[in-house]
Amino acid sequence: MKILKWLDDNLEICLVNFLLANIVVWVFVQVVLRYIFSYSLPWSEELVRWCFVWFIWVGVSYAFKARKHICIDVFVKMLPARASAFIGILIDLILLWAMLKIGILGVSQIMNPIISNQSSIVLIWPFSGVNISMFWLYASLPFGALLSSLRLLQVLVQDIAAFARHSKSKEA
Fold first, then answer.
1. What are the helix (H) ranges across the chain?
2. C-beta separation of 103 from 170 below 8 A
């Protein structure tokens, strides 16, 4: 259970840090090689692009968990606490539906033979010489959307609990 708790607390943070570190390191290496040694790595730009796509989807999930997405809530904050909490639950449900739909469509996309049979031209698995399948790039969509769905479920439970507290305080 400690592992699950640690994953719940740190999964996105570790992935985002790893991906961002890769982006920074490989862009720096590419710039140094290109401008100092007049040489460039053929695969680093594509690796950075893949890391950036994964970074975005994992970041979306983290932002849901931390409740850091941009929102315009001036009118919602003007409402009573109970109505504001109800609108929060409604928004959570709509976002959850959208992320589940995106995740399901993403899974069907990566199962498509057109995508699963494609491979990167320049990215090759180390020690094997086999080109990396585009499956790994497209897998970022369902992974991020389904991880976002999990985080939205957690947020929804918190918002329902807050709504229940507001309802109880209204009755008292």
1. 2-36, 44-66, 74-78, 81-110, 113-116, 135-138, 140-171
2. no
Domain that holds residue 13: 2-171
Total domains in the chain come to 1
> Rounded distance, CA 24 to CA 90, Å?
39
Position 74 pLDDT exceeds 90: no
SS (H, E, C) 138-163: HCHHHHHHHHHHHHHHHHHHHHHHHH
Q: Tally the C-alpha atoms within 13 A of residue 160's C-alpha that lie toward its C-beta.
A: 8
**The pLDDT of residue 171:** 63
Evaluate the CA torsion angle 70, 152, 99, 116 in order and state its sign.
positive
**Dist CA 153 CA 144 (whole Å):** 14
Measured distance CA(58)–CA(131) in Å, rounded: 24
CA atoms within a 13 Å half-sphere pointing along the CA-CB vector of 118? 13
* 62 and 17 Cβ atoms separated by less than 8 Å: no
Nearest Cα neighbor of 142 from 97, 103, 169, 109 is 103
Kindly tell me if the per-residue pLDDT of 170 is higher than 70: no
